[in-house]
Fold this sequence. Notes:
41% helix
Amino acid sequence: MTGPLTDVHAHLWPEDYLALLEEHHRPVSGARAMNATDRPSHLAARIAELNTAGIDRQLVSAAAQMPDFPQATAAAHAARLANDRCAQAVARHPDRLGFLAVLPLPHLDEAITEARHALGVLGAHGVALTWQTGDRQITEHRFDPLFAHLADQGTTVLLHPGGTLPAPPSTPESLRWTAGALAEQTFGLLRWLATERPRRFPRLTAVIARAGGAACLLPPSLLPQPLPPQVRFDSHTQGNHAALRYAADTYGADRIDLGTDHPFARGPDLVAAVNAYRRLAPSPSPAPRTLP
Length: 292
């Protein structure tokens, strides 16, 4: 594979943002332990990992540590802080990093305002959303004005699990993010298609994280044939490279972009994820669309 390789699914959690989440009683110890903040030493280590893995550019976001506070003002402040700090991190390594903005959902007006700021002022490459925000699904029609605004800008949206799928009380947290996220991405994609987002917002590109979950295993009758061109997938399959190959055979390798879930994939796992993606197709992962 030749040409620049862009990782569209990676995480960066600014230190100020994690501190703010903690003030609001959000659990952040796991994110802190990943050493994936905007601290200069963490950014330098990230760039070194990209070099080793052969990744030319990485699009980071603060997902799935989302600024979805119940109070609109607090949510808007948190989203602005996360995006400003991500933009500052990108400015330190502009040739290697870009970012996807997080939005203060479920607060619609504030989310549109922040999208306008992040895309138009900060230069975000798109936005990262989770399927659920508070007790709302983002596929509800009440969020259509946000998607209309994003579509007007020709925005790319990374649709990421939020760890919200119900599970029995005794389910270990690790399974909520392995089996649970797989199911969440599957149902999310089906809802995205059932609510006709691609038809109603044709200039909005959706990248479904984690290769669309288990959707590629469903009966073909449950998915439109062919899938709308505005629906893409990232290549993160939690190290199951056979699953990635099957997803590529089902959807078409040309609609799968490199996604590593870094820093959850590091060292040899990061290299293996890139190599598995490179084996899919002879062309590089395109960077998500930016504003004109």
